[in-house]
Amino acid sequence: MSGYRWRAMIKTVPSNGPEEVFDLKTLLTDGNGPLRCIPRYQDLADEHETLNRTLRRVEFGMRPEVRMHFEIMTMADQAHLATIVERLMRPDYDVQLSLDQGLTYRSVVLSRIPDPQALRGKTIAGAELELGLRCKSPIDRIPALLSEPDGQAQMLANEGLDAWSAGSPVSWTRHQTNGTVVEDTAQERSGVSCAKCEISAGGPVVGLSQPVSLVSPGLWAEVGVYMKAAVAETNAFGIRVRNDTQSKDISSDAETWATNQFGLTGNLSTAYELKSLRFRIDPSFNAGDAYTVHLNLLGSIGLIAYLDDAYLLYPVLPPEVARW
């Protein structure tokens, strides 16, 4: 990947009532949100000179500030910015800004009112506005732009498929309607064992599944597993992430959830390859929804494949979006 982008979202939290999230990319008709986001970090430090003129500094961190420039041709959209500014000026609202699609929210105050100016000198063309926000609290360090978030966790248990009991991998459910899933101690990628899956009848009900917890709708996660086949085959596997509560699966576009979908399908070679999908949890889902990760074979009768070193990382950075 080359370059990066910002994905601005503003959350308004009243002291009494439901919060509201403004996704500026989808909320505004023109420009897919702000045309420019310009963050800067104000250094918070005290400086003094000692008697021998040595400079001493006491650091208190950095205060993030952001300027967002908008060009609005659909004038009804300006009402959304007016609502945000109105809530920034009210003491009964906590307004929070994210530039990384909801991964990191910071409470902010208004530093520049977006007073509308004629777009390119012509009011008939629309308006340009600049909104300035300053974070209430300082931060200790500036995160690397494309670094993964602090607190990222592996959500799968027995991810290396090394622990087995009574013929089944611990924490996993085997699906053997159209074949078999057994332990193999000769073809593992790492550790002491892997799962050997073989299709003996038609249908994709061969593989493994595990329930997982994804508690923050709107954030991103990444699922992956290393796979190989005894003989290379096309259209041989499928990874499904299902919201069991909503009866919906993540689609191949990584953001849409629908029924009976595989988020990722593809070919298998005779060497272990990582098969992975970074996907977004639908913001409309509930925090208590139940999910299941399914790792399936989709190939022809007689296909033998090996699965090892699965993972589900959560949360992860949205694709091409920078941290702040």
Structural summary, described in words:
This protein has 324 residues and is mainly beta. The chain has two domains: 9-135, Elongation Factor Tu (Ef-tu), domain 3 (Beta Barrel), CATH 2.40.30; 153-316, Galactose-binding domain-like (Jelly Rolls), CATH 2.60.120.260. The chain is 5% helix and 49% strand. The chain contains two helices and 23 strands. The protein has helices at residues 24-27, 78-88, and strands spanning 9-14, 20-23, 36-49, 55-72, 93-98, 106-112, 117-119, 122-135, 153-154, 164-165, 168-169, 173-176, 179-184, 194-199, 206-212, 220-229, 233-243, 248-250, 257-258, 264-268, 273-280, 291-297, 304-316. The strands form four sheets. Strands 1, 2, 3, 4, 5, 6, 7 and 8 form an eight-stranded antiparallel beta sheet that branches. The chain is elongated.
Percent helix range = under 10%
Q: What's the total number of strands?
A: 23
Q: State the CATH topology of the largest domain.
A: Jelly Rolls
Provide the structure class: mainly beta
Q: Report the order of strands and helices.
A: EEHEEHEEEEEEEEEEEEEEEEEEE
| CATH homologous superfamily assignment of the largest domain | Galactose-binding domain-like
- The level-1 CATH class of the largest domain: Mainly Beta
* Mean model confidence by pLDDT: 94
CATH architecture of the largest domain: Sandwich
Biggest sheet descriptor: 8 strands, antiparallel
How many helices does DSSP assign?
A: 2
Radius of gyration: 25 Å
The unreliable regions are none
Globally, the shape reads elongated
Number of domains: 2
- Distance N terminus to C terminus? 18 Å
